[in-house]
Structure formats: structure tokens, C-alpha cells
Design goal:
By secondary structure, this protein is mainly alpha-helical. Helices cover 61% and strands 4% of the residues.
């Protein structure tokens, strides 16, 4: 204790010392401050479960198969015995662009046709329907249900419906409307591989256009729902301001409403691209008519065909993965990019 002397001769304790001071928490914990959390042990267990299980499933079901596919694309494995697997480097990729170039280019072009028609036909139709339904017409809920109904069906079921109801040579709707149901006068919508839009050796065939039609029918409902949700979130004052400025309804939509739907536009762009690249089931259930191969069909045929070659099928799969990744990365950059201040 340090004492000080005053004129009266009394000894005083230092003013900065208090006799009743308790030991500080840092001193009692060896110089470390104890941290307190609002989470109980039960909360921690619940959070760990909620984060851990989805992460485990995501890694196990997506990333592990993707990595294995990439590795298998550099082998010549036939899918049966691992002792016959040999590392062949980039041979499978070289063969895709040489030996199997016709199959590859035809498949890529067919994927492009799907993407083109989904953008130029399905997307404008979905926007138009959403814009009309946004006017709160009588029976809007019924119309929404009717247009959205195909979306809840898988493409395989959609393919069966169109094959038996629309494209049936004897009793299909198209042949009945065209009065082509007589024997010998029927139109085989899925069997005619004549080119409608020729591009050199390849092109858009009639049967592949017949396959694209049900894809459009299904995709329109999806576009409608997304844009209808976006239109509901647009600030009405923007439309009012455009009307006051003398803009027509089309000018207001083009210059005010549509630009404000940029987040929806980006989502639809990415979804449409991925939908066009991964198309498989509707072609498969229609027995893969001639000249209708796409990348996903080549993957399946290479792996499960008579001359099974998992390596070549994996190489097709890696190409499909890279194409999808390109648009996904672009979407993430557009979504999380910081706006300039």
C-alpha cells in the first residue's frame, strides 16, 4: 500500500485503490476474457444438423459424382471390371471432335435449337400471358392454374401426352385437323427427319421441331409464374409517372416495367439455358427418333449402349457440365456483383 503525507500528519491510502475490489474476470481466467453465447447446447445441435445434413447430401450427391465423372473421362473403363480400367489421357476428348464429330455437332446444334425456341417463343408468350393476367381479369386464378398445369408434370409425362394425343398418326389432333387419318395419308410427326432449316450437313428436322413443341408448352407456364410474381412487385408509381409523361402502354412496359424486372430476367435466362442443355427425358420416352440426339442422350448411349464406354460418356458429361457452369458463373457474377457507388 502506498501512503501519502498531508499537513495534518495522517497517512492516506491512494485514491485509486478500493479495499472492496473483487478479482477481475480476466485475472481469474488466467488473462483470458470469458465469452458468453446466447445459443444453448440444443440450439447448437439443431443448427449443426440443419447445416450439416444438407451440406453432406449436396457434396455426396453432386460434387463427388461430378469429380468422379471428370476422372473417368480420362479412362477407357467399360463400366464392369475396375482392373480393366486404363488411363488414356485426353483420348476420349480428341475422339469426340474427330471420330464422333457428327454426333457431337448434331447434338450441340439440337441443344441450340431447344434454347433458341425457348427464348424466342416460350419466353415472349410467358411474358404476354403474365402481363395480361396482371390486370386482375375475372377468373385470373383459373387461367393461372390452366397455364401452370403443364409445369407440375414431368417432361416424360408431357412427352407421352403429346405422343398419344397430338402426334398419333391415326387419331392424333393434328392429323384429325388436317384430315390426314386415312391409311397411307397419315403424317408421322415423330418419324419424319426431313430438314426444315438446313445448315450444311445438319439442321432442324421436322421430328425434332415436334419434340420442341411440348417443351415450349411446358416452359410457357414456368415463365408466366416468374414474370407474374415480378410484375406484382413493380412499384405502381412508376407506371403512373410513365402515363403522366405521355408514354403509351407499350412504351411504359418497354422502358420502365421491363428494366425493373432485371433480377427476374437473369433468373429466367439461366434457367432456360440449363433447361435446354439438360433436356433428356422427353426425347427418351419418345424412343429417341432419328436426328434428335442431344448431349444428354449421347451420355446415356455411350454408357448404357451395346459397346459401353464410360470414359467417352463421361467426356460428354464433362462438356455438358462445363456448358452449364459457364452460365451459372455468369449468373452468380451478375447477382453478387457490387453496384457502382
Amino acid at each position: 500500500m502506498t501512503a501519502t503525507h498531508n499537513p495534518s500528519g495522517d497517512s492516506l491510502e491512494s485514491a485509486d485503490e478500493t479495499p472492496n475490489d473483487e478479482p477481475s474476470s480476466s485475472a481469474s481466467s488466467g488473462g483470458r476474457r470469458r465469452r458468453y453465447s446466447l445459443l444453448t447446447d440444443t440450439d447448437r445441435r439443431v443448427l449443426t444438423t440443419m447445416v450439416g445434413i444438407p451440406t453432406f447430401l449436396h457434396v455426396t450427391l453432386i460434387w463427388v459424382p461430378a469429380i468422379i465423372t471428370i476422372l473417368l473421362s480420362f479412362t477407357n473403363w467399360n463400366g464392369f471390371r475396375f482392373d480393366n480400367m486404363e488411363w488414356v489421357g485426353t483420348r476420349n476428348y480428341r475422339q469426340l471432335f474427330t471420330v464422333f464429330e457428327k454426333d457431337l455437332y448434331e447434338a450441340l446444334l439440337n441443344n441450340f435449337w431447344v434454347l433458341l425456341f425457348l427464348f424466342l417463343v416460350a419466353t415472349p408468350l410467358g411474358i404476354l400471358i403474365a402481363y395480361i393476367l396482371d390486370k386482375n381479369l375475372q377468373g385470373t386464378a383459373i387461367y393461372q392454374s390452366v397455364f401452370y398445369f403443364p409445369v407440375v408434370l414431368s417432361l416424360a409425362v408431357v412427352g407421352f401426352i403429346w405422343k398419344s394425343v397430338i402426334y398419333s398418326p391415326r387419331q392424333g389432333v393434328l392429323n384429325v385437323l388436317l384430315n390426314r387419318t386415312a391409311e397411307g395419308d397419315q403424317i408421322s410427326w415423330l418419324g419424319n427427319s426431313d430438314q426444315i432449316i438446313p445448315i450444311g450437313e445438319y439442321g432442324l428436322t421436322q421430328n425434332f421441331l415436334a419434340i420442341i413443341a411440348p417443351m415450349i408448352w411446358r416452359h410457357v407456364g414456368y415463365i408466366m409464374v416468374l414474370y407474374l410474381a415480378g410484375l406484382k412487385s413493380v412499384d405502381p408509381s412508376l407506371k403512373e409517372a410513365a402515363a403522366i409523361d405521355g408514354s403509351s402502354e407499350w412504351q411504359a412496359f418497354k422502358n420502365v416495367v421491363f428494366p425493373s424486372l432485371k433480377p427476374v430476367n437473369v433468373v429466367i435466362l439461366v434457367i432456360t439455358v440449363i433447361e435446354a442443355l439438360r433436356v433428356f427425358d422427353i426425347i427418351d420416352v419418345l424412343n429417341n427418333p432419328i436426328s434428335t440426339d442431344v448431349l444428354s442422350i449421347l451420355v446415356t448411349e455411350s454408357i448404357l449402349g451395346e459397346s459401353s464406354n464410360v470414359g467417352r460418356g463421361s467426356a460428354y458429361g464433362v462438356m455438358l457440365l462445363l456448358l452449364c457452369f459457364g452460365f451459372v458463373i455468369w449468373y452468380l457474377r451478375s447477382t453478387f456483383r457490387e453496384e457502382p457507388s
